[in-house]
Amino acid sequence: MLGVLSGVGIELLELFVTQPLLAHLTGKMPDLSEFDRVASSVKWLSVSLAFTWTLFAFGEELIYRGYLMNRIASLIGDTRTGWLIALTLTSLVFGLAHSAQGITGVIENVIDGIILGSLYLAFGRSLAIPIIAHGVTDTTDFLLIFFHSYPGMHAAMT
After folding, report:
1. Which domain holds residue 53?
2. How big, in percent rounded to 5, are the helix, strand and coil portions of the chain?
3. CA distances from 26 to 23, 96, 102 (A)
4. Which of 58, 64, 66 is CA-nearest to residue 131?
5. What tens-digit pLDDT sequence spans the chain (158 residues)?
6. What is the per-residue pLDDT for 158?
7. CA gap 88, 148 in Å, rounded
8. Is 75 buried (19+), middle (13-18) or exposed (0-12) by CB count in 10 A?
9. What is the spatial distance between Cα 26 and Cα 151, in angstroms, rounded to a whole number?
């Protein structure tokens, strides 16, 4: 339940606070054009949701929070400062890994990485909550794209 609530919270923050603010500051919405095929396509929505829960939620959390954060913290030192540096560096790498989404998408994903990493640390370095939260946010995004309701995408698809 905490993962679901966290995912909903991240999504609300993104759609109603960070994305509008970043779009205003940068003049650009995140570039999600690589997901245009999901709009109105049950086939591509199904494929995207399967990837969401396997590669994106499980895979990315395992790599970024489960492996990289732990590896960086162990190299720096298993201290509060070490974990803070690990959280920061991992979140930056996570954001940059989403560079196809443009500057707004990168910054949004850095913020998401900080939140997901903080959840990981706050709940005893358990991946369960970040995996579920990540899956909920990506599932919501794909459903919004499918129903032509993702902010800023309608213009690109018409």
Report:
1. 2-24+33-157
2. 85, 0, 15
3. 5, 16, 10
4. 58
5. 999 999 999 999 999 999 999 999 999 999 998 899 999 899 999 999 999 999 999 999 999 999 999 999 999 988 999 999 999 999 999 999 999 999 999 999 999 999 999 999 999 999 999 999 999 999 999 999 999 988 876 544 43
6. 37
7. 34
8. exposed
9. 16
SS (H, E, C) 70-122: HHHHHHHCCCHHHHHHHHHHHHHHHHHCCHHHHHHHHHHHHHHHHHHHHHHHH
Q: Number of folded domains in the chain?
A: 1
- Per-residue model confidence (pLDDT) at position 155: 45
CB 106 within 8 A of CB 99: yes
Long-range Cβ pairs for the range 82-90 (8 Å, 24+): 83/121, 87/114, 87/117, 87/118, 87/121, 88/114, 90/64, 90/65, 90/117
Write down the residue that tokens 């570039």 correspond to: 31
Tokens 């590669």: give the residue.
55
pTM attached to this predicted model: 0.90
